[in-house]
Specification:
mainly alpha; Cytochrome Bc1 Complex, Chain D, domain 2; 4 helices; globular
């Protein structure tokens, strides 16, 4: 989870948040979408970033785990 959090903070957090509510982030709040890990992987491939396969998997797992927490 640490690697995914680190990648998200460095690459994704400029446009996306994981708050569970409308944060008015340019790319939206990913926790609101409640996407599966597989859907997040597909979504990452559409983003204007270049990540290794391992980093894509790590960030997808992190986003999914964060989005499904009960406090979201």
């Amino acid at each position: 989870m640490r690697r995914g959090r680190t990648v998200f903070a460095a690459v994704c957090a400029g446009c996306h948040t994981l708050t569970g509510h409308d944060s008015r982030a340019p790319g939206g709040d990913l926790a609101m979408a409640k996407l599966s890990t597989r859907a997040i992987v597909s979504f990452v491939h559409l983003m204007p970033v270049h990540l290794t396969g391992a980093n894509v998997s790590a960030v997808a797992a992190y986003v999914h785990a964060t989005a499904v927490r009960p406090d979201h």
